[in-house]
Amino acid sequence: xxxxxxxxxxxxxxxxxxxxxxxxxxxxxxxxxxxxxxxxxxxxxxxxxxxxxxxxxxxxxxxxxxxxxxxxxxxxxxxxxxxxxxxxxxxxxxxxxxxxxxxxxxxxxxxxxxxxxxxxxxxxxxxxxxxxxxxxxxxxxxxxxxxxxxxxxxxxxxxxxxxxxxxxxxxxxxxxxxxxxxxxxxxxxxxxxxxxxxxxxxxxxxxxxxxxxxxxxxxxxxxxxxxxxxxxxxxxxxxxxxxxxxxxxxxxxxxxxxxxxxxxxxxxxxxxxxxxxxxxxxxxxxxxxxxxxxxxxxxxxxxxxxxxxxxxxxxxxxxxxxxxxxxxxxxxxxxxxxxxxxxxxxxxxxxxxxxxxxxxxxxxxxxxxxxxxxxxxxxxxxxxxxx
Length: 387
Fold this sequence. Notes:
Elements: H1 7-20, H2 41-66, H3 77-104, H4 111-140, H5 149-156, E1 170-171, E2 174-175, H6 185-202, H7 210-228, H8 233-253, H9 260-277, H10 286-300, H11 312-319, H12 321-335, H13 339-347, H14 349-386
Antiparallel strand pairs: 1-2
Helix pairs in contact: 1-2, 1-14, 2-3, 2-11, 2-12, 3-6, 3-8, 3-10, 4-12, 4-14, 7-8, 8-10, 9-10, 12-14, 13-14
């Protein structure tokens, strides 16, 4: 019998969800709120795979807790990388897309419009997820205060800042972080990029050709810093943003054409690099980052990994990726909060992964609902307000 941490289960979950996303129900995710081009179609599909990969990593952590271990107990490299490498690539995607906007606008972005649309892209689903977490927290305490009102307000205030400020793990005496798998920590780095790094960097796009020298310099400098300070998570996060920016600069300066034959060859290269990545315990160090950067450069150059990233199913999940990312932890927590479910999951490895597939399907359906009812209206309102 396969062990619970056999990589087969990761690929099985992803395959089933891609088949599930072909359901006509997900046709509603085809109406994209953003324009898709040949340069971004693979990114759209990549986001969907990354969001599901984070779910699988958290499912692996959940299995530890089911057998009486701590959530923080290390898991095999492969399953740890499914989450950490996905976050790294998410940061590269942000750097790529927004640096490209800055370069195309010669650094003269409409900053007010950018920040308004970003806020209404992130905040509505974020506040919805926070509301659910708070309901679960207070439901567990029978809606009674377990700590002083002053302490409770201090815990709640960071939640109002749409992820900009680090949120504590405990609210009203309950470990709230485990409810949503503590996924909101990445939003702080995203906001820091939008509010600090991007405006400063945009200055270097006002002269023709400067952007690539700036992105190369930042990439090299941060690579050196992360080698010398491997425990600096802020440095590696910044390097990930610059990795995406450098890819955007390369594409702005050089015409890269990916033929069908080259696509096939580089798809094999990507698989080999992913296999190499599994030998590292964490993605948050220089060497695994450089592997991921090469993978990202190939993907943004047109490598679709045998057509996977450009498939309609992957792109549909990409449209729902932010909702899946923020809400899958809540779905996991809710389903596995029932003792009968826990007993069933513990009885067999197959049963555990069957439940994870059902949770992933449910998370995709919940994401579809929040995408249509909250995310898309929020984006539309932000666009109107920015005008």
